[in-house]
Amino acid sequence: MYNYHHERGGGLMIIAVCDDQITEGRALAGCLASILQDRKLSGNPICFSGSGEMLKAMGNGTFPINFLDIYMDGINGVELARIIRERNPRAAIVFTTGSRDHMAEGFEVGAAHYLIKPFYRADVELALDRCLMLSNSAEPYLELRIQRETRRVMYSQILYIESQNRCCIVHTLGDEIRSYIRLDQLQEQLKDPRFLRCHRSYIVNLDCIQGICGNDFLLISGMPIPIRREKRAEFKAFFENYYFEKTRSQL
Question: How is domain 5-135 classified at the architecture level of CATH?
Answer without folding.
Answer: 3-Layer(aba) Sandwich (3.40)
